[in-house]
Recover the amino acids of this structure.
């Protein structure tokens, strides 16, 4: 009596499939969310909504509207939508940029009305945000 061995899985030799831009962006959102939670924020993620805000981070006296970008750049329309929404409700507009190791947080300081001009933002650290929000 012979037993039948299962056929080996087909392989292409190409290795694992490269990660999509969506997956890499989602991973950044998750890392930023985790970091904000470690800093004491309650964080809401607007997954897949294509909204003006990726994360809403809330701490006593603070509301952060966070847009996560691996490149650290926002097109003017997205920049201004984030800025305007944050201004409307008194939130701090924040851009989270992916670095090779870690990330940087930038506080938007104005609208971006002139393409090609320096982005109106300043680097900020989470412990400084309480001072900005008050």
């Amino acid at each position: 009596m012979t037993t039948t061995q299962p056929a080996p899985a087909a392989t292409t030799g190409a290795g694992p499939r490269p990660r999509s831009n969506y997956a890499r962006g989602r991973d950044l959102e998750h890392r930023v969310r985790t970091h904000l939670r470690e800093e004491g924020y309650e964080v809401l993620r607007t997954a897949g909504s294509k909204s003006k805000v990726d994360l809403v981070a809330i701490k006593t006296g603070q509301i952060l509207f966070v847009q996560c970008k691996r490149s650290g750049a926002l097109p003017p329309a997205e920049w201004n939508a984030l800025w305007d929404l944050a201004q409307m409700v008194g939130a701090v507009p924040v851009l989270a940029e992916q670095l090779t190791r870690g990330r940087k947080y930038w506080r938007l300081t104005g609208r971006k009305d002139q393409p090609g001009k320096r982005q109106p933002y300043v680097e900020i650290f989470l412990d400084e945000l309480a001072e900005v929000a008050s």
Q: What stands out?
A: The helical segments are 21-38, 76-89, 126-133. Residues 21-38 form the longest helix (18 residues). The first strand starts at residue 42 and ends at 45. Strands lie at 42-45, 55-59, 62-69, 92-98, 103-108, 121-124.
